[in-house]
Amino acid sequence: MSNNTKPNNSMLNDAGTRALIFQILLLSIVVFVGYFLFTNLQNNLDNRGISTGFAFFNEPAGFPILIHLIEYTDSGTYGRAFAVALINTFVISLIGIVLATIIGVIVGLARLSNNWLVARLATVYVETLRNLPLLLQMFFWYFAVLAALPAPGDSYELADFLLNKRGIYSPNPIFQDGFGVVVAGFILSIIASIALVVWAKKRQTKTGLWFPAYWSSLGLIIAITFLALIVSGFPIEFDIPQKSRFNVSGGMVLPPEFVAVLIALSTYTGAFIAEIVRAGILSVNWGQTEAARSLGLRDSLTQRLIVLPQALRVIIPPLTSQYLNLAKNSSLGAAIAYPELVSVVMGTTLNQTGQAIETIGLCMLVYGSLSLTISMFMNWYNKKMSLIER
Question: What's the whole-model pTM score?
Answer without folding.
Answer: 0.83
